[in-house]
Amino acid sequence: MEYGVGYFPTHDGIGPGALARQLEERGQDALFFAEHTHIPASRESPWSGGAELPRKYWHCYDLFVALTAAAEATTRLRVGSGVCLVVERDPITTAKEVASVDHLSGGRLEFGVGAGWNREEMANHGTDPRTRMALLGERVQAMQAIWTQDEASYAGRFVNFDRIWSWPKPAQQPYPPVLVGGGGPTVLDRVLAWGDGWFPQWHDDDLFERIAQLQARADRPIEVQVLSVPPDPKALEQLEHAGVRRASCWLPSGPWSVVEEALQRWEQAIAKLTGR
Protein backbone atom coordinates (compact mmCIF):
# COMPACT_ATOMS: atom_id res chain seq x y z
CA MET A 1 0.00 0.00 0.00
CA GLU A 2 1.13 3.53 -0.76
CA TYR A 3 0.81 6.62 1.43
CA GLY A 4 0.03 10.25 0.80
CA VAL A 5 -1.38 13.42 2.29
CA GLY A 6 -4.10 15.93 1.57
CA TYR A 7 -3.67 19.67 2.09
CA PHE A 8 -5.58 22.93 1.71
CA PRO A 9 -2.92 25.10 -0.01
CA THR A 10 -3.61 28.44 1.66
CA HIS A 11 -1.74 31.61 0.79
CA ASP A 12 -0.63 32.08 4.42
CA GLY A 13 0.76 28.56 4.93
CA ILE A 14 3.69 26.63 3.51
CA GLY A 15 3.59 26.94 -0.27
CA PRO A 16 2.53 24.03 -2.47
CA GLY A 17 5.98 23.67 -4.04
CA ALA A 18 7.85 23.74 -0.74
CA LEU A 19 5.46 21.21 0.80
CA ALA A 20 5.74 18.91 -2.22
CA ARG A 21 9.56 18.93 -1.98
CA GLN A 22 9.43 18.02 1.70
CA LEU A 23 7.01 15.18 1.06
CA GLU A 24 9.09 13.75 -1.77
CA GLU A 25 12.27 13.91 0.30
CA ARG A 26 10.55 12.15 3.20
CA GLY A 27 9.26 9.31 1.03
CA GLN A 28 5.55 10.08 0.69
CA ASP A 29 3.96 8.87 -2.53
CA ALA A 30 1.31 11.51 -3.26
CA LEU A 31 0.00 14.97 -2.43
CA PHE A 32 -3.65 15.95 -2.96
CA PHE A 33 -4.94 19.52 -2.86
CA ALA A 34 -8.47 20.54 -1.90
CA GLU A 35 -10.47 22.96 -4.04
CA HIS A 36 -12.96 25.71 -3.31
CA THR A 37 -13.28 28.70 -5.60
CA HIS A 38 -14.98 30.65 -2.80
CA ILE A 39 -17.31 30.22 0.15
CA PRO A 40 -20.57 32.19 0.16
CA ALA A 41 -20.74 34.48 3.19
CA SER A 42 -24.40 33.53 3.64
CA ARG A 43 -23.65 29.80 3.62
CA GLU A 44 -26.54 27.59 4.71
CA SER A 45 -25.25 24.15 3.64
CA PRO A 46 -24.14 22.17 6.71
CA TRP A 47 -20.49 21.16 6.94
CA SER A 48 -19.90 17.61 8.16
CA GLY A 49 -17.05 18.73 10.41
CA GLY A 50 -19.14 20.96 12.67
CA ALA A 51 -20.95 24.28 12.88
CA GLU A 52 -18.02 26.58 12.15
CA LEU A 53 -16.26 26.21 8.80
CA PRO A 54 -12.46 26.65 9.01
CA ARG A 55 -11.10 29.70 7.20
CA LYS A 56 -8.81 27.55 5.04
CA TYR A 57 -11.86 26.75 2.88
CA TRP A 58 -11.87 30.25 1.40
CA HIS A 59 -8.13 31.02 1.54
CA CYS A 60 -6.84 28.40 -0.94
CA TYR A 61 -4.80 29.01 -4.05
CA ASP A 62 -6.37 27.96 -7.33
CA LEU A 63 -6.21 24.17 -7.59
CA PHE A 64 -4.31 23.92 -10.87
CA VAL A 65 -1.87 26.71 -9.98
CA ALA A 66 -1.04 24.81 -6.79
CA LEU A 67 -0.71 21.51 -8.66
CA THR A 68 1.65 23.09 -11.18
CA ALA A 69 3.85 24.47 -8.41
CA ALA A 70 3.96 21.06 -6.70
CA ALA A 71 4.75 19.24 -9.92
CA GLU A 72 7.52 21.66 -10.89
CA ALA A 73 9.16 21.27 -7.46
CA THR A 74 9.35 17.45 -7.63
CA THR A 75 10.31 14.59 -9.93
CA ARG A 76 8.64 11.51 -8.41
CA LEU A 77 5.73 12.62 -6.22
CA ARG A 78 2.24 12.02 -7.56
CA VAL A 79 0.09 15.16 -7.39
CA GLY A 80 -3.67 15.27 -7.46
CA SER A 81 -6.99 16.89 -6.70
CA GLY A 82 -8.79 15.91 -3.57
CA VAL A 83 -11.22 16.74 -5.09
CA CYS A 84 -11.77 18.95 -8.13
CA LEU A 85 -15.29 20.40 -8.00
CA VAL A 86 -16.14 19.65 -11.60
CA VAL A 87 -19.72 20.90 -11.26
CA GLU A 88 -18.26 24.40 -10.76
CA ARG A 89 -15.99 24.27 -13.83
CA ASP A 90 -16.21 24.52 -17.58
CA PRO A 91 -15.31 21.04 -18.90
CA ILE A 92 -13.34 22.22 -21.95
CA THR A 93 -11.17 24.55 -19.85
CA THR A 94 -10.73 21.94 -17.13
CA ALA A 95 -9.75 19.27 -19.66
CA LYS A 96 -7.04 21.63 -20.91
CA GLU A 97 -5.76 22.26 -17.35
CA VAL A 98 -5.68 18.56 -16.45
CA ALA A 99 -3.87 17.64 -19.65
CA SER A 100 -1.40 20.51 -19.25
CA VAL A 101 -0.42 19.59 -15.68
CA ASP A 102 -0.16 15.90 -16.57
CA HIS A 103 1.99 16.71 -19.60
CA LEU A 104 4.28 19.11 -17.73
CA SER A 105 4.69 16.71 -14.81
CA GLY A 106 5.62 13.75 -16.98
CA GLY A 107 2.40 11.89 -16.21
CA ARG A 108 2.13 12.31 -12.42
CA LEU A 109 -1.38 13.72 -12.04
CA GLU A 110 -4.29 11.92 -10.34
CA PHE A 111 -7.68 13.50 -10.99
CA GLY A 112 -9.99 13.24 -8.00
CA VAL A 113 -13.44 14.58 -8.86
CA GLY A 114 -16.61 15.35 -6.96
CA ALA A 115 -19.75 17.46 -6.79
CA GLY A 116 -19.05 19.00 -3.39
CA TRP A 117 -21.32 19.66 -0.42
CA ASN A 118 -21.85 23.43 -0.52
CA ARG A 119 -25.04 24.06 -2.49
CA GLU A 120 -24.74 27.85 -2.35
CA GLU A 121 -21.21 27.64 -3.77
CA MET A 122 -22.25 25.53 -6.74
CA ALA A 123 -25.33 27.66 -7.34
CA ASN A 124 -23.07 30.72 -7.68
CA HIS A 125 -21.49 28.89 -10.64
CA GLY A 126 -24.89 28.37 -12.26
CA THR A 127 -25.25 24.75 -11.17
CA ASP A 128 -28.60 23.42 -9.97
CA PRO A 129 -27.78 21.31 -6.89
CA ARG A 130 -30.64 18.95 -7.77
CA THR A 131 -28.95 17.84 -11.01
CA ARG A 132 -25.32 18.09 -9.91
CA MET A 133 -24.57 14.36 -10.10
CA ALA A 134 -25.80 14.05 -13.68
CA LEU A 135 -23.83 17.19 -14.55
CA LEU A 136 -20.71 15.75 -12.92
CA GLY A 137 -20.92 12.58 -14.99
CA GLU A 138 -21.42 14.41 -18.27
CA ARG A 139 -18.58 16.85 -17.66
CA VAL A 140 -16.12 14.09 -16.74
CA GLN A 141 -17.11 11.98 -19.75
CA ALA A 142 -16.82 15.04 -22.01
CA MET A 143 -13.29 15.61 -20.71
CA GLN A 144 -12.44 11.97 -21.34
CA ALA A 145 -13.54 12.48 -24.95
CA ILE A 146 -11.32 15.55 -25.29
CA TRP A 147 -8.32 13.67 -23.88
CA THR A 148 -8.71 10.67 -26.19
CA GLN A 149 -10.09 12.03 -29.49
CA ASP A 150 -8.25 14.13 -32.08
CA GLU A 151 -11.58 15.74 -32.96
CA ALA A 152 -13.65 15.44 -29.83
CA SER A 153 -17.43 15.63 -29.68
CA TYR A 154 -19.92 15.18 -26.87
CA ALA A 155 -23.72 15.32 -26.82
CA GLY A 156 -25.57 15.25 -23.52
CA ARG A 157 -28.27 16.95 -21.52
CA PHE A 158 -25.88 19.49 -19.98
CA VAL A 159 -22.74 19.37 -22.14
CA ASN A 160 -22.68 19.70 -25.92
CA PHE A 161 -19.89 20.39 -28.39
CA ASP A 162 -19.05 19.09 -31.84
CA ARG A 163 -15.60 18.37 -33.32
CA ILE A 164 -13.13 20.40 -31.32
CA TRP A 165 -9.33 20.35 -31.31
CA SER A 166 -7.57 20.52 -27.96
CA TRP A 167 -3.93 19.83 -27.16
CA PRO A 168 -1.79 18.85 -25.33
CA LYS A 169 -3.18 15.42 -24.66
CA PRO A 170 -2.33 13.93 -21.25
CA ALA A 171 0.99 12.13 -20.84
CA GLN A 172 -0.78 9.18 -19.19
CA GLN A 173 -2.77 6.87 -21.44
CA PRO A 174 -5.61 7.11 -21.96
CA TYR A 175 -5.69 9.91 -19.35
CA PRO A 176 -4.88 10.51 -15.65
CA PRO A 177 -6.73 8.20 -13.25
CA VAL A 178 -10.21 9.58 -12.54
CA LEU A 179 -10.90 8.99 -8.84
CA VAL A 180 -14.55 9.47 -7.91
CA GLY A 181 -15.00 11.13 -4.54
CA GLY A 182 -18.03 10.87 -2.31
CA GLY A 183 -19.78 8.46 0.00
CA GLY A 184 -23.41 8.85 -1.05
CA PRO A 185 -25.76 5.98 -1.93
CA THR A 186 -25.08 6.09 -5.70
CA VAL A 187 -21.35 6.77 -5.72
CA LEU A 188 -20.37 3.22 -6.65
CA ASP A 189 -22.59 3.47 -9.73
CA ARG A 190 -20.59 6.51 -10.85
CA VAL A 191 -17.29 4.76 -10.20
CA LEU A 192 -18.33 1.79 -12.31
CA ALA A 193 -19.82 3.95 -15.07
CA TRP A 194 -16.91 6.27 -15.80
CA GLY A 195 -14.30 6.18 -13.01
CA ASP A 196 -10.95 4.50 -12.61
CA GLY A 197 -11.22 4.36 -8.84
CA TRP A 198 -13.18 5.26 -5.74
CA PHE A 199 -11.87 8.04 -3.49
CA PRO A 200 -13.87 7.94 -0.24
CA GLN A 201 -13.14 9.47 3.15
CA TRP A 202 -12.20 7.27 6.10
CA HIS A 203 -15.32 8.38 7.98
CA ASP A 204 -17.78 7.52 5.18
CA ASP A 205 -20.46 5.05 6.26
CA ASP A 206 -19.88 1.31 5.71
CA LEU A 207 -16.49 1.94 4.09
CA PHE A 208 -15.16 -1.61 4.15
CA GLU A 209 -18.48 -3.19 3.24
CA ARG A 210 -18.76 -0.89 0.24
CA ILE A 211 -15.17 -1.58 -0.84
CA ALA A 212 -16.12 -5.27 -0.96
CA GLN A 213 -19.29 -4.42 -2.90
CA LEU A 214 -17.29 -2.43 -5.45
CA GLN A 215 -14.81 -5.24 -5.95
CA ALA A 216 -17.66 -7.75 -6.40
CA ARG A 217 -19.47 -5.59 -8.96
CA ALA A 218 -16.47 -4.50 -11.03
CA ASP A 219 -15.72 -6.23 -14.32
CA ARG A 220 -12.42 -4.34 -14.74
CA PRO A 221 -9.64 -3.19 -12.40
CA ILE A 222 -10.96 -0.49 -10.06
CA GLU A 223 -8.65 0.99 -7.45
CA VAL A 224 -9.60 2.41 -4.06
CA GLN A 225 -7.81 5.28 -2.36
CA VAL A 226 -8.95 6.63 1.00
CA LEU A 227 -8.60 10.20 2.29
CA SER A 228 -8.75 11.56 5.87
CA VAL A 229 -7.15 8.41 7.30
CA PRO A 230 -6.13 8.89 10.96
CA PRO A 231 -2.47 8.43 11.93
CA ASP A 232 -3.21 5.04 13.44
CA PRO A 233 -1.38 1.86 12.38
CA LYS A 234 -4.53 -0.19 13.08
CA ALA A 235 -6.48 1.89 10.59
CA LEU A 236 -3.71 1.50 8.03
CA GLU A 237 -3.68 -2.26 8.58
CA GLN A 238 -7.44 -2.43 7.97
CA LEU A 239 -7.08 -0.54 4.72
CA GLU A 240 -4.18 -2.70 3.57
CA HIS A 241 -6.17 -5.88 4.23
CA ALA A 242 -9.08 -4.44 2.25
CA GLY A 243 -6.86 -4.02 -0.81
CA VAL A 244 -6.72 -0.22 -0.72
CA ARG A 245 -4.06 1.14 -3.06
CA ARG A 246 -3.21 4.29 -1.12
CA ALA A 247 -4.09 5.79 2.26
CA SER A 248 -3.81 9.56 2.74
CA CYS A 249 -4.25 11.81 5.77
CA TRP A 250 -5.16 15.49 5.86
CA LEU A 251 -2.43 17.79 7.14
CA PRO A 252 -3.30 21.09 8.82
CA SER A 253 -2.79 24.27 6.81
CA GLY A 254 -0.14 26.61 8.17
CA PRO A 255 3.62 27.15 8.43
CA TRP A 256 6.02 24.24 8.11
CA SER A 257 6.35 23.89 11.90
CA VAL A 258 2.63 23.13 12.20
CA VAL A 259 2.54 20.88 9.15
CA GLU A 260 5.66 18.93 10.12
CA GLU A 261 4.31 18.01 13.54
CA ALA A 262 1.24 16.39 11.98
CA LEU A 263 3.31 14.78 9.25
CA GLN A 264 5.58 13.18 11.83
CA ARG A 265 2.57 11.53 13.49
CA TRP A 266 1.53 10.17 10.10
CA GLU A 267 5.04 8.89 9.38
CA GLN A 268 5.20 7.21 12.79
CA ALA A 269 1.95 5.35 12.12
CA ILE A 270 3.28 4.15 8.78
CA ALA A 271 6.55 3.06 10.37
CA LYS A 272 4.72 1.04 13.03
CA LEU A 273 2.82 -0.82 10.32
CA THR A 274 5.63 -1.35 7.86
CA GLY A 275 8.57 -1.66 10.26
CA ARG A 276 10.61 0.96 8.44
From TrEMBL:
Traced from the root, the source organism's taxonomic lineage reads: Bacteria, Bacillati, Actinomycetota, Actinomycetes, Micromonosporales
Q: Carries keyword Flavoprotein?
A: yes
Instruction: Report TM segments.
Output: none
Q: Protein name, please? A: Putative F420-dependent oxidoreductase
What region holds the Luciferase-like domain?
A: 18-222
**Does the keyword Cell membrane belong to this entry?**
no
Which SUPFAM superfamilies does the entry link to? Answer: Bacterial luciferase-like
- One biological process term in Gene Ontology: alkanesulfonate catabolic process
Q: Supply the Gene3D superfamilies for this chain.
A: Luciferase-like domain
GO MF assignments: alkanesulfonate monooxygenase activity
| Keyword entries, A-Z | Flavoprotein, FMN, Monooxygenase, Oxidoreductase
Positions the record marks as coiled coil are none
One family name in Pfam for this protein:
Bac_luciferase
